Amino acid sequence: MSDNKNEKIIIANWKMKLGFGDSVKLAKDFSDKFADFKEESKTVVACPSLVSLSEVKKVLGDNVKMGAQNVFWEVQGSYTGEISPNSLEEIGCKYVIVGHSERRKHLLENYAMIHQKVKTLLSSSKLIPIVCIGEEADDRKTDRRDYVLMNQIQQALGGVNIGGDQKIVVAYEPVWAIGSGTALDPEEAKYAHKIIRLALNDMFGMKVVEANFKVVYGGSVTSENVKNFSDLEDIDGLLVGGASLDADEFLKICKNI
Ligand code: 13P
Questions:
Q1: In the chain, N or C: fewer CB atoms in 10 Å?
Q2: In this predicted model, what pLDDT tens digit does every residue of 12-22 receive, in sequence order?
């Protein structure tokens, strides 16, 4: 991720969909298919499972950066089973997803934890946090979406100091759209991203948001619907789940955003 405000970032989240061997195989496929992908204004990131990170790094190639799917809010100590940001950096990660809705649902990760994680990442590492927000289907039905998004942003990032060359990605993933096969309608995406941008501007000022933040969309993105998101002013990229498990399909998405 650079200072170019027109740069797009496209992130593949492989979740827990692949075993070790298949993750390494897919990374090799990414490396082959992305070997000629040299669009200066696009950054491509792959986030494999934790156990495959080191091996994936060896085969991923230069055109795809590596990210992790989770991290802890301390760098060292008695935290059985947790992952230090320092270790992620040591094995070549540049990005890390924080607070994915699947972790919020299944592991009860909350925005106080997400806030701690972001603070630690920014103060003790060079990892770029990909901070997930997004409303539930009920919030949307009852017209609470704007409030929910603003509240999540406030809880995750309120009081966090961002400056200099620190970067941060906010991933807007409406929970109901994830894995549903139904992506957000472009008009709605435009509106939600505007709300997110305004909330960030309010908290950090427009200059900092332009220089240090990217806001990306995630939820059932495919090569078929990617064009819906490519010309939307406030969308700086995508976070892709299912469609990133096929290197050809993901390459198409990256070419068409
Ligand atoms: P899908 O693209 O499979 O809907 O997943 C989105 C997601 O959760 C990415 O983090």
A1: N
A2: 999 999 999 99
